[in-house]
C-alpha cells in the first residue's frame, strides 16, 4: 500500500500505529479471515482463514499458513504444489477482525491453476421469482 | 484484474465462465464476505459482509450495500458519509464463498477517515509465554 495511513505519515517511523495481537478479534471458531494480495501487481489472490497458530507460523516463517475449515487442519500454502507465498506485509483492519496479507507468490494462488481464485465474474441477480424474499 | 482467468481468455467473450448466484455459498448466518478493492489503485479498502438482499441491492443500484453484523441491519455504504462506492465489477472465488467487489470510491472507505481500513501493520507475535498454546 502506498498510503497506509494519513496518521502514520505524520511522524517518524517509530510513530506508526501498529496493531498488536491483542487488537485482533477472532470469530467464534477462533478464526480471522485473511485477504491475500499480490504485493507486486495488487491483484487480490484469495481469502482464507487463520487461527492463532496459522498466524504465528505465518509471521515466524514468512510464508502463508492457514486453517482449512473443510479439512480441519493447518495448511502451509504451497507445501504440496510449491506455490508458496512469501509475506511482505500484514495489515489489520480498523476493527481488528480481518487481515490483509501482502505476498510475493511463487505460483498461482488457486487450486485450479488460475493466478487468482477470483477468476469468475458474478452474473446478475436471478430473475424475479427465483428469490424467496416475498 | 488484468488476468481474470486463463480459461476465460481462450474463447470469445461469450465463453467467459461466469459464477451465478446458485454458485454462491453463504455461511450459516446467510452471509458472504466481500473484499472491496479500489478498481483504479488496486488498494484493498475493506472487508464487509453481504446477505442476499445486500448483494441484490449492490447489483441493482451499482453501489455497495452490506449487512452490518454488529447493528443487525442493511447498510448502504456512504448513505450518511457520502462516501459511496460505485461498483465496477464483482467476482466470485473458485469455491463461491467469497466475493471481490471492485469499486470507484467517492471518499475514504474507513470510518476513521483513512482511505483504507487496513492502515495498521500487524506487530509481530507476542513474546513466548503470553500465548496459551502449551
Describe this structure in words.
Chain A is built from one helix and seven strands; from the N terminus they run E-E-H-E-E-E-E-E. The longest helix of chain A is centred in the middle third of the chain and has 10 residues. Chain A starts with 31 loop residues before the first strand and ends in a 13-residue tail after the last strand. Strand 5 of chain A pairs antiparallel with strand 7 of chain B, so a sheet runs across the interface.
* Percent range for β-strand residues of chain A: 25-35%
Q: Biggest β-sheet of chain A, characterized? A: 4 strands, mixed
Sketch the topology of chain A as an H/E string, one letter per element. Answer: EEHEEEEE
Terminal residue distance of chain A = 43 Å
Uncertain segments of chain A of ≥5 residues (pLDDT<50)?
Answer: 1-13
Identify the quaternary structure here.
homodimer
Rounded to an integer, what's the Rg of chain A over CA atoms?
17 Å
The greatest inter-chain interface is formed by: A-B, 61 and 61 residues
Q: How would the global form of chain A be characterised?
A: globular
Query: How many strand elements of chain A?
Result: 7
Amino acid at each position: 500500500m502506498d498510503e497506509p495511513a494519513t496518521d502514520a505519515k505524520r511522524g517518524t517511523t517509530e510513530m506508526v500505529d501498529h496493531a498488536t495481537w491483542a487488537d485482533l478479534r477472532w470469530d467464534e471458531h477462533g478464526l480471522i479471515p485473511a485477504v491475500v494480495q499480490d504485493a507486486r501487481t495488487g491483484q487480490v489472490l484469495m481469502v482464507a482463514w487463520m487461527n492463532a497458530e496459522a498466524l504465528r507460523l505465518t509471521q515466524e516463517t514468512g510464508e502463508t499458513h492457514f486453517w482449512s475449515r473443510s479439512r480441519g487442519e493447518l495448511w502451509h500454502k504451497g507445501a504440496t504444489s510449491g506455490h508458496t507465498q512469501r509475506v511482505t506485509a500484514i495489515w489489520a483492519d480498523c476493527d481488528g477482525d480481518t487481515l490483509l496479507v501482502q505476498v510475493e507468490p511463487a505460483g498461482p494462488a488457486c487450486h485450479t491453476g488460475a493466478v487468482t481464485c477470483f477468476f469468475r465474474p458474478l452474473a446478475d441477480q436471478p430473475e424475479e421469482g427465483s428469490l424467496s424474499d416475498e
